TrEMBL record, chain A:
Keyword vocabulary terms for this entry: Acetylation, Cell projection, Coiled coil, Endosome, Lipid-binding, Membrane, Phosphoprotein, Protein transport, Transport
Function of the molecule: Involved in several stages of intracellular trafficking. Interacts with membranes containing phosphatidylinositol 3-phosphate (PtdIns(3P)) or phosphatidylinositol 3,5-bisphosphate (PtdIns(3,5)P2). Acts in part as component of the retromer membrane-deforming SNX-BAR subcomplex. The SNX-BAR retromer mediates retrograde transport of cargo proteins from endosomes to the trans-Golgi network (TGN) and is involved in endosome-to-plasma membrane transport for cargo protein recycling.
Top-rank taxon: Eukaryota
Gene: SNX2
PROSITE patterns: PX
Membrane association type: Peripheral membrane protein
Coiled coil start-end: 436-470
Keyword Methyltransferase: no
InterPro entries named among the record's database cross-references: AH/BAR_dom_sf, PX_dom, PX_dom_sf, SNX2_PX, Sorting_nexin_N, Vps5_C
Primary site of residence: other
Protein's UniProt name: Sorting nexin-2
Length: 509, 395
């Protein structure tokens, strides 16, 4: 499934620096006219503007409205709109999807320009945050819930089916509210399809929750104890968060695979996700090969931004891991505390029973009751700790791994480009030699080869720049999302703590 | 490690309120305490200008002297204070010192601070317990007049009481076994009717109560420990958050830093909740566990006396039938009878005292515990709210 790329219109300079986007206002009037590839087939990209077609009717007009209000906008990092030159040649995005439907995924939901956000993300972020908020409200009017885990089947072939409910007002969906039943491997299948389409072009695809053989086996075997219900609940919450993150990404939202996942009632079984299948083993081999490659590729980092960002992500990763470990310890201890408090409550009750002084006996049994309630509280708090705080951290740790993967892809792209250049050089040398030796037919062949390789070199270069641009946008977007996410979660968590303490004081009165 | 503790004023025991009624002319207090390597030296002072330095073993010697004294068989001997045990916290301090390279300097400093506070707390507690022991002795009208007590309080030199060597410990252990076997035998003996309902009731009550309070005490300890662990957990979290915060460049920075601060304060509060629970609840339970054990011992002694009395009766009857040695049997029986009655009377008094003491102490401690928990909950709600407001207020 080689990704085919239509060569974008040549002839323009392709400076990847966004400093060109000074003329913000001009640019976005034209972005309205920027396009998507036509649904029918991957054609050369000089597509007429009117093809703002089937996929994104709804959000489009509203977007334009908003856009008009602001100059100097930074792009919502969505599309493959790389407006790098004043000519604003639209560059098409990635390859057609190797998946089921022929519709190519690219759409421009919010063609906003990302001006200067590379160099100074901080400053701009702050002022644009509000704009962002509003815009998000308009575009992403889609809510996803994962609920009702049900056990289907029996024995080792059993699995849990989850109901995925979507509420949306986007017109690209046929209905405004619908729900389907999916199982865990379906989610994994969706992720692998999205990853194969987007990861190596530089999009940060949210990672799916991890497989857990132990957990699933327990569920399959049918143990009805608290740990397996906890496991199912944990998985359900993780799946919900995964889907919510995926639909927040504007490009991914347009993906037909995603739509199919959300809408169609029957989905072909994603066998490739099984751990021991052929595809699984292939994946593992690939991963090993990648790791080796990473060590051998020495890239000339021409762009300091990338280096800095990579370093930043490394640090962030380390610290998140540390924090995550501490929070896990906290959760564990709180659970212990609640268990101990329960035990104490019981023995206090017994003590109250045996006490013959009535007032004291009553006081002691009241103490026992209070302690029991406090124990419940502690347990709830432990759950809150876990679900809000700790899971968020682990999600972000995985996301950062995906980000790192994206950076690695960029490196591989660069490598390909380098290789193409080297080969071109060799071919040119060969041609020169032929010239000297004066063999006309060989010369022709050599010239052909040279042309071929020149094209490849240019392709490689464009790919590389494309991926760099995409990554920049993606990273910017990722950062914003991260900031928002963390803040919301922290606020929620603190509120839960407040509530717990309030309950405690209520009980002690 | 040398630590000083001004145990005099602050060391007023909060774990057991002893009603020091009666003649308060004899007031004992531990004005100072020094911890040297293995031993703790207490400076015992009486109101009337005597001041001596005593070690833990000497307290134990005093306690044993009371227990073995036949005269006090009818009284509840205040339980001996537990050995000062710094093992656990010393171990922890050592482990901390050995170092965990992943722990940052601030974290290390904080943990060390926590451990030192813990050490200090244990120290204060042990001083308090010793003091309570002495004060109860001083308050009891009979016990305070013991000669050994005076020796303890006044004799300036070292009492040269060595700790029990292994043989004596073993002997003590065996004696306990014999005692409980004996008790089982006596109670099982038919014909040993408990004449007094009061005692019957007290017996059953005490047995049950003792087991349950021991249970409760153990569990309360566990709760306290878990709580302490929880509070300690906040340290690495706070440290990680602050390092995250310093690294961030956007508005998450202030959020993280505030959060780190919040967790730091929460930690202190949680630590205080844990230690309050420890002081008010577990210590009290522990003390009364030991006290009820002492009461049980009293009952046992009385029972033993009753058994002796019965035996003496039987012996007298036998002697009378054989008409030999009636006189000694008679006197023996008289003796036993007197002893028994004496014991019964004083036991009754003691047990009632025990009950009232217990009730008032429980009441006081439970009330204080509830108030403290309330205070802490309010305080933590306050800081949480403040942080929330600050976080929400930011763009």
């Amino acid at each position: 499934m080689a990704a085919e790329r239509e060569p974008p219109p040549l002839g323009d300079g392709k400076p990847t620096d966004f400093e060109d986007l000074e003329d913000g206002e001009d640019l976005f009037t034209s972005t309205v006219s920027t396009l998507e590839s036509s649904p029918s087939s991957p054609e050369p990209a000089s597509l007429p503007a009117e093809d703002i077609s089937a996929n994104s009717n709804g959000p489009k007009p509203t977007e334009v409205g908003l856009d008009d209000d602001r100059e100097d906008l930074f792009a919502e990092a969505t599309e493959e709109v790389s407006l790098d030159s004043p000519e604003r040649e639209p560059i098409l995005s990635s390859e057609p999807s190797p998946a089921v439907t022929p519709v190519t995924p690219t759409t421009l939901i919010a063609p906003r320009i990302e001006s200067k956000s590379m160099s100074a993300p901080v400053i701009f972020d702050r002022s644009r945050e509000e704009i962002e908020e509003e815009a998000n409200g308009d575009i992403f009017d889609i809510e996803i819930g994962v609920s009702d885990p049900e056990k289907v089947g029996d024995g080792m072939n059993a699995y849990m089916a989850y109901r995925v409910t979507t509420k949306t007002s986007l017109s690209m969906f046929s209905k405004s509210e619908f729900s389907v039943k999916r199982r865990f491997s379906d989610f994994l299948g969706l992720h692998s399809k999205l990853a194969s389409k987007y990861l190596h072009v530089g999009y940060i695809v949210p990672p799916a929750p991890e497989k857990s053989i132990v957990g699933m086996t327990k569920v399959k075997v049918g143990k009805e104890d608290s740990s397996s219900t906890e496991f199912v609940e944990k998985r359900r919450a993780a799946l919900e968060r995964y889907l919510q993150r995926t639909v927040k990404h504007p490009t991914l939202l347009q993906d037909p695979d995603l739509r199919q996942f959300l809408e169609s009632s029957e989905l072909p079984r994603a066998v490739n996700t099984q751990a021991l299948s052929g595809a699984g083993i292939l994946r593992m081999v690939n991963k090993a090969a990648d790791a080796v490659n990473k060590m051998t590729i020495k890239m000339n980092e021409s762009d300091a931004w990338f280096e800095e960002k990579q370093q930043q992500f490394e640090n962030l990763d380390q610290q998140l891991r540390k924090l995550h470990a501490s929070v896990e310890a906290l959760v564990c201890h709180r659970k212990e505390l609640s268990a101990n408090t329960a035990a104490f409550a019981k023995s206090a009750a017994m003590l109250g029973n045996s006490e013959d002084h009535t007032a004291l006996s009553r006081a002691l049994s009241q103490l026992a009751e209070v302690e029991e309630k406090i124990d419940q509280l502690h347990q709830e708090q432990a759950f809150a700790d876990f679900y809000m705080f700790s899971e968020l951290l682990s999600d972000y740790i995985r996301l950062i791994a995906a980000v790192k993967g994206v950076f690695d892809h960029r490196m591989k792209c660069w490598q390909k480009w380098e290789d193409a250049q080297i080969t071109l050089l060799k071919k040119r040398e060969a041609e020169a030699k032929m010239m000297v030796a004066n063999k006309p037919d060989k010369i022709q062949q050599a010239k052909n080869e040279i042309r071929e390789w020149e094209a490849k070199v240019q392709q490689g270069e464009r790919d590389f720049e494309q991926i760099s641009k995409t990554i920049r946008k993606e990273v910017g977007r990722f950062e914003k999302e991260r900031v928002k996410d963390f803040k919301t979660v922290i606020i929620k968590y603190l509120e839960s703590l407040v509530q717990t303490q309030q309950q405690v004081s209520h009980f002690c009165l | 490690m040398e630590t000083h503790a001004e145990a005099g004023k602050e060391g007023k025991p909060s774990c057991a309120s002893v009603d020091l009624q009666g003649d308060s002319s004899l007031q004992v207090e531990i004005s100072d305490a020094v911890s040297e390597r293995d031993k703790v030296k207490f400076t015992v002072q009486t109101k009337t200008e005597f001041s001596v330095v005593r070690q833990h073993e000497e307290f134990i010697w005093l306690h044993d002297a009371y227990v073995e004294n036949e005269e006090y068989a009818g009284l509840i001997i205040p339980p001996a204070p537990p050995r000062p045990d710094f093992e656990a916290s010393r171990e922890k301090l050592q482990k901390l010192g050995e170092g965990d390279s992943s722990v940052t300097r601030e974290e290390f400093a904080k943990m060390k601070q926590e451990l030192e506070a813990e050490y200090l707390a244990i120290f204060k507690k042990t001083v308090a317990m010793h003091e309570v022991f002495l004060q109860r002795l001083a308050a009891h009208p009979t016990l305070r007049r013991d000669h050994n007590f005076f020796v303890f309080l006044e004799y300036g030199q070292d009492l040269s009481v060595r700790g029990k060597n292994r043989k004596e410990l073993l002997g003590g252990f065996l004696r306990n076994i014999v005692k409980s076997a004996d008790e089982a035998l006596i109670t099982g003996m038919s014909g040993l009717k408990e004449v007094d309902d009061f005692f019957e009731h007290e017996r059953t009550f005490l047995l049950e109560y003792h087991t349950r309070i021991r249970d409760a005490c153990l569990r309360a300890d566990r709760v306290m420990r878990a709580h302490k662990c929880l509070a300690d957990d906040y340290i690495p979290i706070s440290a990680a958050l602050s390092s995250l915060g310093t690294q961030e460049v956007n508005q998450l920075r202030t959020s993280f830093l505030k959060l780190a601060e919040l967790f730091e304060r929460l930690r202190k509060l949680e630590g205080r909740v844990a230690s309050d629970q420890d002081l008010k609840l577990s210590d009290m339970l522990r003390y009364y566990m030991r006290d009820s054990q002492a009461a049980k011992d009293l009952l046992y002694r009385r029972l033993r006396a009753l058994a002796d009395y019965e035996n003496a009766n039987k012996a007298l009857d036998k002697a009378r039938t054989r008409n030999r040695e009636v006189r000694p049997a008679e006197s023996h029986q008289q003796l036993c009878c007197q002893r028994f009655e004496r014991l019964s009377d004083s036991a009754k008094q003691e047990l009632m005292d025990f009950k009232s003491r217990r009730v008032s102490s429980f009441r006081k401690n439970l009330i204080e515990l509830a108030e403290l928990e309330l205070k802490h909950a309010k305080a933590s709600t306050l800081i949480l709210r403040n942080t929330l407001v600050a976080l929400k207020g930011e763009p």
